[in-house]
Design goal:
Order of helices and strands: EHHEEEEEEEEEEHHHEHHHEHEEEEHHEH
Strand order of the largest sheet: 2-11-10-5-4-3-6
Shape: globular
Largest sheet: 7 strands, antiparallel
Strand content: 25-35%
Number of strands: 18
Number of helices: 12
Radius of gyration: 22 Å
Helix content: 25-40%
Structural class: alpha+beta
């Protein structure tokens, strides 16, 4: 089949042992986006996120951010229930025996225990997790010592992305809406779907009315770095292609009228319009299930206006998202058939091949 290349094999999307290897060699060894730093506005504010089976506690200290495994060093109790967010009153107290830690993770008190009992506070800090930010987005790294040894900083993982998006005021934006989806599909199916538009014609009729270029030659001639043009008279990602919100200041002429997208492995999809940004965080929960959090980001100046109403963007995105998740779930079900062993990438799906080039070296590393 000239011009066609094989996809990853069936087991890559279905087998628990493959997912376990991905946990160990990808999700726990790469910078993993978990949300927005604005969720941690003041000292003591915290969130708890699950990163491929590990519960992670992220907290703002008086001087910055810290992240820890959400487990007490005494008997292993979770310090905070999964999915919780709130504000610590000055320390992190275990609900089991009241061992208390500083926001930085150092053991402060253990009731009725002293060093004469064998307690060495300096050896009993919470297990650390790496934490960093870019563009207001919050990332964690579950093996920070290994990352330092490899020089694997967040900047190194992001590569050229910040440069390509440098005119968008990402750090200034704030979330106006948040939608959480439970998708019965492997995380790689979702990323591969995001990374091509061969499917846009059959799956997204409303989207293709806004962006006719998605129908042309299966999206094979799209220039994602420059941005994707809307239909005549349209300039943003809404059903009408327009909005009463002003474009971000500082964008170039293309960015004021075109749509951009970035796939940042392993779990971050970013779509940028002239007036808003749709951020997608993927939380793989197993070989056949993925939680997707979609946040809609706008400039505070627009959010402060009495007429601000994000529904034109949110509703359009929600329609497109549900079409995507439905087809991803269909793919996942189909790959479960004994008749399926491996698929094919057509030439216009060239960008989708990136997942093999990115994934396989990481799965093979020691």
């Amino acid at each position: 089949m000239s011009g066609m290349e094989r996809t990853l094999p069936r087991a890559a999307y279905l087998a628990p042992e493959v997912f376990h290897r991905e946990q160990e060699r990808i999700f726990w060894r790469e910078w993993f986006v978990v949300g927005r730093a604005e969720e941690l506005a003041g000292p003591g504010d915290y969130i708890v996120r699950e990163v491929a089976g590990e519960s992670i506690l992220v907290v703002r200290t008086r001087i910055g951010l810290a992240a820890h495994y959400n487990v007490c060093r005494h008997r292993g109790s979770q310090l905070v229930p999964q999915g919780r967010a709130g504000c610590f009153g000055g320390g992190i107290r275990c609900p089991y025996h009241s061992w208390t830690y500083t926001l930085e993770g150092e053991l402060r008190t253990a009731p009725f225990l002293e060093e004469s009992d064998g307690l060495t506070r300096s050896d009993l800090s919470l297990h650390p997790v790496g934490v960093d930010t870019w563009g207001g987005f919050l990332f964690v790294h579950l093996t920070p010592d290994g990352a330092r040894e490899r020089g694997h900083t967040l900047a190194a993982q992001l590569g050229p992305v910040p440069g390509r998006l440098g005119r968008y005021p990402l750090a200034e934006l704030r979330a106006a809406r948040r939608i959480e989806y439970e998708v019965a599909a492997n995380w790689k199916v979702v990323l591969e779907n995001y990374n091509e538009c061969y499917h846009c014609g059959p799956v997204h009729p409303e989207l293709c009315r806004l962006v006719p270029a998605f129908r042309q030659r299966g999206g094979s001639e799209l220039d994602w770095e420059r941005g994707i043009p809307h239909r005549d008279g349209a300039w943003t990602f809404t059903a009408s292609g327009t909005t009463n919100r002003l474009p971000f200041e500082g964008l170039n002429e293309d960015e004021r009228t075109r749509h951009k997208g970035e796939l940042i492995y392993p779990n971050f999809m970013l779509s940028l319009s002239a007036d808003h940004v749709a951020a997608f965080y993927l939380f793989p929960g197993g070989p056949d299930r993925t939680t997707i959090v979609n946040e809609f980001l706008f400039h505070p100046d627009e959010m402060g206006k009495a007429e601000f109403a994000p529904a034109d963007a949110v509703d359009f995105w929600d329609l497109v998202n549900r079409q995507d998740w439905a087809i991803c779930e269909s793919v996942q079900r189909g790959m479960g058939s004994r008749g399926y062993t491996q698929g094919w990438f057509a030439p216009m799906e060239d960008a989708s091949l990136d997942i093999r080039r990115w994934l396989l070296p990481r799965l093979e590393r020691a």
